[in-house]
Write a structure and sequence with these properties.
Elements: H1 2-9, E1 13-20, H2 26-40, E2 46-53, E3 60-67, H3 70-76, H4 80-89, E4 98-103
Antiparallel strand pairs: 1-3, 1-4, 2-3
Helix pairs in contact: 2-4
Amino acid sequence: MGSKKIEEKIKMSVTIVHIKVKEKYINDFINATLKNQEASIKEHGNKRFDFLQAHDDPAKFILYEAYENEKVAAEHKKTLHYVNWRAEVEQYMAEPRVGITYNALSKLR
């Protein structure tokens, strides 16, 4: 009974993307990602889009992206601003991005 109620509440899709960029491209990556972030937060169904930089390594970043559901999150990847961002930042990567998708079990504030 308890687990069914939890599963019924799970709708929000949250992806955490770990990124490591080449040091010479840190500023370029930040500028491109801020532009993508600004457009992403205006999308229908976007609940949160945080862009974080590590204190101990300025070439490490995290994107925290929350959407109403998986369908809306998939639509985000078809937007022009995302497609352009992905093409631009590909050259900045020191290693492949790693994104992990989670189900949100609590509401975002």
